């Protein structure tokens, strides 16, 4: 971490807090309001849909004000929104404060990519994105553990305590970020004029965003498709779902650095394609689980989850590094805002799509997901012909040419 301990600590604080609240979100509002499950889900869904276009505004703000200021604003908004949950007791209030919370979350993570690029040098990008992804997962895991204790207590006071502590973690992250330098790219000449029109006309980058969208769809499997498939469709023991999440968290937290080291020297585009193919292999395992007896099925679904997580470990840091380096420095906030938008759209759409597909039978969801991943893999292989950053090789930072110390932005 070196000189970046405060930044990493802020990210830990943010993710621990989020890990605290995510597992109890629905249960908290059911316990503290008179809303039904459908009403709570509706309020949260409305807030997610309303805030999707905010990525465009955040991208522009990152370019104009610098990523650190946007991250600071994001933490404050999340702190206010989370604290307001303590008094929310109607559909409108839950939706309104959730909108504020989502805007803050998008602000923080919309500025995340530009900050990582600013603090790292060419040849270190996969290492930094991978390291911070591992840190985030461990933070979520720690927060989830504490949330589990609160659920074990099971009182309204314990749930409200979790919300209050989460609000304080956002304040803590804000204080830590105050001591972080205002990372902005140093331009040795006046940047050419440009805005969202430049970004949206950049067809090679839009192809990369499409591939990232397909990867994000795959990443939603563990949250939305697999738990329902395992517990409801296959009727496996309920504890299996918890073990799946634990396995995923541990693999990402402890194995991300090893995977980046293994990928070093290999072409980014091929690694992106491989990540999608590994996703396909995991889907094949999940389909096969439905044909197996109970004990073997439990072992097989855990094996499938391990294969699936390997796809996450391969694709995550490489896609992030490629997206960051393919963007011109003076428009990086907007470019990465577009990739952030893909995550927002998948988060809003996939719960509905996955549940609809699962209702069509055991295989439908995996066939569709497999087709999406195969298309993305085929597109990724052809990407270097139009996007030079995708043709570069993965580096873990140890093989960097020591002469190259200045940040260079890839051509869009």
UniProtKB/TrEMBL annotation:
Pfam families: MFS_1
Topology versus the membrane: Multi-pass membrane protein
Organism field: Nocardioides malaquae
Keyword Transmembrane assigned: yes
Protein known as: MFS transporter
Cellular compartment(s): Cell membrane
TM ranges: 7-31, 37-58, 138-155, 161-180, 205-226, 238-259, 271-289, 295-314, 335-357, 363-381
Chief location bin: membrane
